[in-house]
Specification:
The protein has helices at residues 2-35, 38-45, 50-61, 70-79, 84-93, 99-109, 111-134, 161-196, 199-205, 213-221, 228-240, 245-257, 260-266, 272-296. The chain is an all-alpha fold. It is globular and about 65 Å long.
Length: 297
Protein backbone atom coordinates (compact mmCIF):
# COMPACT_ATOMS: atom_id res chain seq x y z
CA UNK A 1 0.00 0.00 0.00
CA UNK A 2 2.89 2.34 0.77
CA UNK A 3 4.41 1.69 -2.66
CA UNK A 4 1.04 2.24 -4.32
CA UNK A 5 0.66 5.54 -2.47
CA UNK A 6 4.13 6.64 -3.60
CA UNK A 7 3.30 5.69 -7.18
CA UNK A 8 0.00 7.58 -7.16
CA UNK A 9 1.62 10.62 -5.55
CA UNK A 10 4.30 10.58 -8.24
CA UNK A 11 1.68 10.29 -10.98
CA UNK A 12 -0.41 13.18 -9.67
CA UNK A 13 2.65 15.36 -9.00
CA UNK A 14 4.17 14.82 -12.43
CA UNK A 15 0.83 15.23 -14.22
CA UNK A 16 0.21 18.47 -12.34
CA UNK A 17 3.70 19.80 -13.08
CA UNK A 18 3.51 18.78 -16.75
CA UNK A 19 0.10 20.36 -17.20
CA UNK A 20 1.27 23.68 -15.74
CA UNK A 21 4.58 23.59 -17.61
CA UNK A 22 3.07 22.59 -20.93
CA UNK A 23 0.25 25.14 -20.93
CA UNK A 24 2.50 27.86 -19.47
CA UNK A 25 5.36 27.34 -21.89
CA UNK A 26 3.01 26.77 -24.83
CA UNK A 27 1.46 30.14 -24.02
CA UNK A 28 4.72 32.01 -23.52
CA UNK A 29 6.51 30.77 -26.65
CA UNK A 30 3.97 31.96 -29.26
CA UNK A 31 3.48 35.15 -27.24
CA UNK A 32 7.22 35.86 -27.51
CA UNK A 33 7.15 35.04 -31.22
CA UNK A 34 4.50 37.73 -31.65
CA UNK A 35 7.03 40.34 -30.50
CA UNK A 36 9.96 38.92 -32.46
CA UNK A 37 9.75 39.27 -36.24
CA UNK A 38 9.89 35.77 -37.72
CA UNK A 39 12.52 36.80 -40.23
CA UNK A 40 14.86 38.04 -37.48
CA UNK A 41 14.31 34.92 -35.36
CA UNK A 42 15.03 32.65 -38.31
CA UNK A 43 18.27 34.55 -38.91
CA UNK A 44 19.34 33.96 -35.30
CA UNK A 45 18.50 30.26 -35.33
CA UNK A 46 19.36 29.52 -38.95
CA UNK A 47 23.11 29.94 -38.93
CA UNK A 48 24.92 28.30 -41.81
CA UNK A 49 26.36 24.85 -41.21
CA UNK A 50 27.45 23.99 -37.72
CA UNK A 51 26.73 27.50 -36.41
CA UNK A 52 22.98 26.85 -36.38
CA UNK A 53 23.50 23.70 -34.30
CA UNK A 54 25.73 25.59 -31.87
CA UNK A 55 23.03 28.24 -31.46
CA UNK A 56 20.48 25.48 -30.85
CA UNK A 57 22.67 23.98 -28.12
CA UNK A 58 23.30 27.38 -26.51
CA UNK A 59 19.57 28.06 -26.54
CA UNK A 60 19.06 24.71 -24.85
CA UNK A 61 21.74 25.50 -22.27
CA UNK A 62 20.03 28.70 -21.10
CA UNK A 63 16.51 27.27 -20.94
CA UNK A 64 16.01 25.47 -17.60
CA UNK A 65 13.46 22.95 -18.80
CA UNK A 66 13.08 19.22 -18.19
CA UNK A 67 12.72 16.68 -20.98
CA UNK A 68 8.93 16.97 -21.27
CA UNK A 69 8.73 20.75 -21.13
CA UNK A 70 11.02 21.01 -24.18
CA UNK A 71 8.25 19.51 -26.34
CA UNK A 72 6.14 22.68 -26.75
CA UNK A 73 9.30 24.69 -27.43
CA UNK A 74 10.34 22.15 -30.07
CA UNK A 75 6.92 22.49 -31.66
CA UNK A 76 7.18 26.28 -31.62
CA UNK A 77 10.64 26.24 -33.23
CA UNK A 78 9.48 23.91 -36.00
CA UNK A 79 6.42 26.06 -36.66
CA UNK A 80 8.68 29.13 -36.82
CA UNK A 81 10.69 27.51 -39.61
CA UNK A 82 13.90 26.90 -37.67
CA UNK A 83 16.07 24.29 -39.49
CA UNK A 84 15.45 20.69 -38.46
CA UNK A 85 19.07 20.03 -37.41
CA UNK A 86 19.12 23.08 -35.15
CA UNK A 87 15.86 22.02 -33.51
CA UNK A 88 17.19 18.51 -32.88
CA UNK A 89 20.40 19.87 -31.31
CA UNK A 90 18.21 21.95 -29.01
CA UNK A 91 15.94 19.00 -28.20
CA UNK A 92 18.88 16.78 -27.23
CA UNK A 93 20.74 19.37 -25.17
CA UNK A 94 17.98 21.30 -23.41
CA UNK A 95 17.08 18.81 -20.62
CA UNK A 96 20.75 18.22 -19.80
CA UNK A 97 22.17 21.72 -19.44
CA UNK A 98 21.29 24.94 -17.69
CA UNK A 99 23.11 27.30 -15.27
CA UNK A 100 21.64 25.58 -12.19
CA UNK A 101 22.78 22.14 -13.37
CA UNK A 102 26.29 23.44 -14.01
CA UNK A 103 26.39 25.01 -10.54
CA UNK A 104 25.22 21.78 -8.88
CA UNK A 105 27.82 19.74 -10.73
CA UNK A 106 30.57 22.15 -9.66
CA UNK A 107 29.38 22.10 -6.04
CA UNK A 108 28.99 18.34 -5.66
CA UNK A 109 31.27 16.74 -8.26
CA UNK A 110 33.85 19.46 -8.97
CA UNK A 111 34.48 21.89 -11.81
CA UNK A 112 36.30 19.33 -13.97
CA UNK A 113 33.23 17.09 -14.00
CA UNK A 114 30.96 20.08 -14.68
CA UNK A 115 33.04 21.34 -17.60
CA UNK A 116 33.44 17.83 -18.99
CA UNK A 117 29.70 17.24 -18.74
CA UNK A 118 28.93 20.51 -20.54
CA UNK A 119 31.49 19.88 -23.29
CA UNK A 120 30.45 16.29 -23.97
CA UNK A 121 26.70 16.90 -23.98
CA UNK A 122 27.17 19.95 -26.22
CA UNK A 123 29.45 18.07 -28.60
CA UNK A 124 27.11 15.09 -28.98
CA UNK A 125 24.07 17.36 -29.37
CA UNK A 126 25.79 19.23 -32.22
CA UNK A 127 27.05 16.06 -33.92
CA UNK A 128 23.71 14.27 -33.85
CA UNK A 129 21.79 17.38 -34.90
CA UNK A 130 24.04 17.70 -37.95
CA UNK A 131 23.78 13.96 -38.68
CA UNK A 132 19.98 13.93 -38.62
CA UNK A 133 19.93 16.96 -40.91
CA UNK A 134 22.37 15.34 -43.35
CA UNK A 135 20.31 12.13 -43.40
CA UNK A 136 17.37 14.17 -44.67
CA UNK A 137 15.12 13.18 -41.80
CA UNK A 138 13.35 16.53 -41.74
CA UNK A 139 10.61 14.71 -43.65
CA UNK A 140 9.96 12.70 -40.48
CA UNK A 141 8.22 15.71 -38.94
CA UNK A 142 4.48 15.13 -39.15
CA UNK A 143 2.94 17.43 -41.72
CA UNK A 144 -0.38 17.89 -39.98
CA UNK A 145 -0.62 20.80 -37.57
CA UNK A 146 -1.41 20.14 -33.93
CA UNK A 147 -5.19 20.05 -33.59
CA UNK A 148 -6.55 23.33 -32.27
CA UNK A 149 -3.58 25.41 -33.51
CA UNK A 150 -4.27 28.46 -35.60
CA UNK A 151 -1.76 30.29 -37.76
CA UNK A 152 -2.00 34.06 -37.69
CA UNK A 153 0.09 36.30 -39.89
CA UNK A 154 2.01 39.25 -38.47
CA UNK A 155 -0.37 41.66 -40.21
CA UNK A 156 -3.39 40.06 -38.51
CA UNK A 157 -1.95 40.20 -35.00
CA UNK A 158 -3.82 42.49 -32.57
CA UNK A 159 -1.85 45.29 -30.95
CA UNK A 160 -3.13 44.86 -27.39
CA UNK A 161 -1.13 42.57 -25.10
CA UNK A 162 -4.26 40.99 -23.57
CA UNK A 163 -5.55 39.99 -27.00
CA UNK A 164 -2.20 38.48 -27.94
CA UNK A 165 -2.09 36.61 -24.63
CA UNK A 166 -5.59 35.24 -25.30
CA UNK A 167 -4.56 33.98 -28.74
CA UNK A 168 -1.45 32.35 -27.30
CA UNK A 169 -3.40 30.66 -24.52
CA UNK A 170 -6.04 29.29 -26.91
CA UNK A 171 -3.28 27.86 -29.08
CA UNK A 172 -1.62 26.33 -26.00
CA UNK A 173 -4.91 24.80 -24.88
CA UNK A 174 -5.46 23.25 -28.31
CA UNK A 175 -1.94 21.77 -28.28
CA UNK A 176 -2.44 20.46 -24.75
CA UNK A 177 -5.70 18.67 -25.60
CA UNK A 178 -4.02 16.97 -28.54
CA UNK A 179 -1.22 15.45 -26.42
CA UNK A 180 -3.18 14.87 -23.18
CA UNK A 181 -3.74 11.15 -23.80
CA UNK A 182 -0.02 10.73 -24.51
CA UNK A 183 0.76 12.39 -21.19
CA UNK A 184 -1.64 10.12 -19.29
CA UNK A 185 -0.17 6.95 -20.78
CA UNK A 186 3.46 8.05 -20.47
CA UNK A 187 3.29 9.39 -16.93
CA UNK A 188 1.35 6.29 -15.84
CA UNK A 189 4.10 3.99 -17.10
CA UNK A 190 6.82 6.21 -15.63
CA UNK A 191 5.07 6.30 -12.25
CA UNK A 192 4.81 2.50 -12.14
CA UNK A 193 8.53 2.16 -12.86
CA UNK A 194 9.38 4.87 -10.34
CA UNK A 195 7.31 3.29 -7.58
CA UNK A 196 8.23 -0.36 -8.04
CA UNK A 197 11.90 -0.33 -9.14
CA UNK A 198 14.03 -1.47 -6.14
CA UNK A 199 16.35 1.34 -5.03
CA UNK A 200 19.25 -1.01 -4.25
CA UNK A 201 19.22 -2.39 -7.79
CA UNK A 202 20.82 0.78 -9.18
CA UNK A 203 23.70 0.64 -6.70
CA UNK A 204 24.28 -3.05 -7.41
CA UNK A 205 24.27 -2.68 -11.18
CA UNK A 206 26.47 0.44 -11.10
CA UNK A 207 29.14 -1.15 -8.90
CA UNK A 208 32.76 -1.33 -10.03
CA UNK A 209 32.59 -5.13 -10.17
CA UNK A 210 30.24 -4.88 -13.15
CA UNK A 211 32.23 -4.28 -16.40
CA UNK A 212 29.03 -3.26 -18.14
CA UNK A 213 27.98 -0.78 -15.44
CA UNK A 214 27.85 2.25 -17.73
CA UNK A 215 25.69 0.48 -20.29
CA UNK A 216 23.44 -1.11 -17.68
CA UNK A 217 22.87 2.16 -15.80
CA UNK A 218 22.10 3.97 -19.06
CA UNK A 219 19.43 1.38 -19.83
CA UNK A 220 17.97 1.65 -16.32
CA UNK A 221 17.97 5.44 -16.37
CA UNK A 222 16.19 5.85 -19.71
CA UNK A 223 12.64 4.91 -18.60
CA UNK A 224 12.94 6.96 -15.39
CA UNK A 225 11.58 10.51 -15.45
CA UNK A 226 14.13 12.48 -13.43
CA UNK A 227 15.52 15.95 -13.90
CA UNK A 228 19.26 16.50 -13.74
CA UNK A 229 18.76 18.25 -10.40
CA UNK A 230 17.22 15.02 -9.07
CA UNK A 231 19.71 12.72 -10.78
CA UNK A 232 22.75 14.41 -9.20
CA UNK A 233 21.81 13.49 -5.58
CA UNK A 234 21.10 9.92 -6.77
CA UNK A 235 24.52 9.91 -8.41
CA UNK A 236 26.17 11.07 -5.20
CA UNK A 237 24.53 8.21 -3.32
CA UNK A 238 25.79 5.75 -5.92
CA UNK A 239 29.31 7.16 -5.61
CA UNK A 240 29.16 6.66 -1.85
CA UNK A 241 28.29 3.00 -2.50
CA UNK A 242 31.25 2.52 -4.85
CA UNK A 243 29.80 3.30 -8.26
CA UNK A 244 32.15 4.71 -10.90
CA UNK A 245 31.91 8.35 -12.00
CA UNK A 246 31.18 7.10 -15.52
CA UNK A 247 28.15 5.15 -14.32
CA UNK A 248 26.88 8.23 -12.48
CA UNK A 249 27.29 10.45 -15.56
CA UNK A 250 25.57 7.79 -17.67
CA UNK A 251 22.62 7.74 -15.27
CA UNK A 252 22.33 11.53 -15.22
CA UNK A 253 22.30 11.79 -19.02
CA UNK A 254 19.98 8.86 -19.70
CA UNK A 255 17.62 9.65 -16.82
CA UNK A 256 17.29 13.36 -17.57
CA UNK A 257 17.80 13.26 -21.34
CA UNK A 258 14.83 11.08 -22.10
CA UNK A 259 11.53 10.13 -20.51
CA UNK A 260 8.56 7.97 -21.46
CA UNK A 261 6.16 10.95 -21.13
CA UNK A 262 8.44 12.95 -23.43
CA UNK A 263 8.54 10.17 -26.05
CA UNK A 264 4.79 9.78 -26.07
CA UNK A 265 4.37 13.54 -26.46
CA UNK A 266 7.03 13.74 -29.17
CA UNK A 267 5.18 11.03 -31.11
CA UNK A 268 2.50 13.62 -31.81
CA UNK A 269 5.13 15.72 -33.63
CA UNK A 270 7.57 13.21 -35.14
CA UNK A 271 7.21 9.94 -37.01
CA UNK A 272 8.44 6.67 -35.52
CA UNK A 273 11.89 6.84 -37.13
CA UNK A 274 12.77 10.05 -35.25
CA UNK A 275 11.48 8.65 -31.95
CA UNK A 276 13.67 5.55 -32.30
CA UNK A 277 16.65 7.66 -33.39
CA UNK A 278 16.19 9.97 -30.39
CA UNK A 279 16.26 7.03 -27.97
CA UNK A 280 19.42 5.67 -29.60
CA UNK A 281 21.08 9.11 -29.55
CA UNK A 282 20.48 9.64 -25.83
CA UNK A 283 21.69 6.11 -25.09
CA UNK A 284 24.89 6.57 -27.13
CA UNK A 285 25.52 9.97 -25.55
CA UNK A 286 25.09 8.50 -22.05
CA UNK A 287 27.31 5.48 -22.67
CA UNK A 288 30.12 7.27 -24.51
CA UNK A 289 30.16 10.13 -22.00
CA UNK A 290 30.30 7.64 -19.13
CA UNK A 291 33.15 5.68 -20.73
CA UNK A 292 35.10 8.89 -21.46
CA UNK A 293 34.69 10.03 -17.84
CA UNK A 294 35.94 6.66 -16.59
CA UNK A 295 39.02 6.98 -18.80
CA UNK A 296 39.99 10.53 -17.88
CA UNK A 297 38.99 10.63 -14.18
Amino acid sequence: MNTLAITLKYFLTIMGELTILFIGISTIIPLLFMYIPQKKFKIWMSGKGIWGNIIGVLFGAVTPFCACSTVPITLGLLEAGVPFGTVMSFLISSPLMDPLVFSLLVAFLGWKVAVGFFVLTSLFSIIFGILLEKLGWADQVKKVRIKGSVQISEEELPKAFIERLKISFLKAWGDFKSVFIYMIIGVGIGAAIYGYLPADLLAKVAGPENPFAVIAVALIGMPLYIRVESAIPIGLALLDKGASIGAVISLIISGAGIAIPELTMLSSIFKKKIIIAFIVIVFITAVLSGLIFNMII
